[in-house]
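Practice problem 4.
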């Protein structure tokens, strides 16, 4: 997977949430969490795995809503941030953080109701193999996001420390067919790139976001959106 060493650095983990989800990045955080919650409702009582859970943004949120959640990540530093975050929350479900490789998940077949992977596939060197492994341990649902090839994301993609894999809709459709997953829904969002939101204060980012969502309602916007949220079922 791309960027393994970079993500495992202590200083990167400590600054990760602040750099990405403060300022205008709060709007990104809010939208991503909304996408996950809407895809897997009702949450209470579900057994959920998040791979590449990072600092636990989604794992903690899901446990707060009553799910029994395992967050898996290759970075011990990221996992420690997640454990610290969970200490200050009231959890209705259970939460476990586990260090491991998303390409070799340490769970039996059909072990979880739902598997999610957010901010992961742009780093995957073999997306089909990773998706197949996710399918193996899920008995019902897989939710993930991808960054889109024909979008503003491509403008600054070269500046990322480990690069980024961008996908076309047709490429993801082929991946779903190869791994025997049925598409339930896909949502596209963020015409303006993530980097713009992160670079400016929230009060300036909010009107841009309003304009972004307005443009996003137009049919042509599906081909310009930076990110797609995929909700799939195991056949």
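Answer key:
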């Amino acid at each position: 997977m791309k960027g393994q060493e970079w993500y495992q650095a202590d200083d990167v983990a400590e600054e990760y949430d602040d750099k990405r989800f403060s300022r205008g990045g709060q709007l990104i955080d809010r939208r991503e969490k909304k996408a996950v919650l809407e895809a897997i409702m009702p949450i209470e009582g579900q057994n959920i795995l998040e791979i590449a859970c990072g600092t636990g943004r989604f794992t903690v949120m899901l446990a707060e809503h009553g799910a029994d959640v395992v967050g898996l990540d290759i970075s011990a530093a990221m996992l420690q941030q997640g454990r610290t975050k969970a200490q200050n929350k009231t959890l209705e479900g259970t939460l476990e953080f586990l260090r491991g490789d998303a390409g070799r998940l340490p769970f039996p077949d059909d072990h979880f109701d739902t598997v999610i992977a957010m901010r992961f596939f742009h780093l995957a060197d073999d997306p089909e193999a990773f998706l197949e492994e996710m399918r193996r341990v899920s008995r019902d649902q897989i939710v993930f996001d991808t960054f889109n090839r024909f979008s503003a994301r491509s403008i600054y993609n070269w500046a990322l420390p480990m690069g980024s894999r961008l996908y076309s809709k047709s490429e993801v459709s082929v991946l779903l067919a190869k791994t025997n997953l049925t598409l339930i829904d896909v949502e596209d969002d963020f015409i303006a790139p993530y980097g713009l939101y992160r670079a400016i204060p929230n009060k300036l980012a909010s009107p841009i976001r309003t304009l972004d969502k307005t443009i996003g309602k137009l049919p042509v916007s599906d081909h310009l959106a930076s990110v797609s949220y995929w909700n799939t079922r195991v056949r």
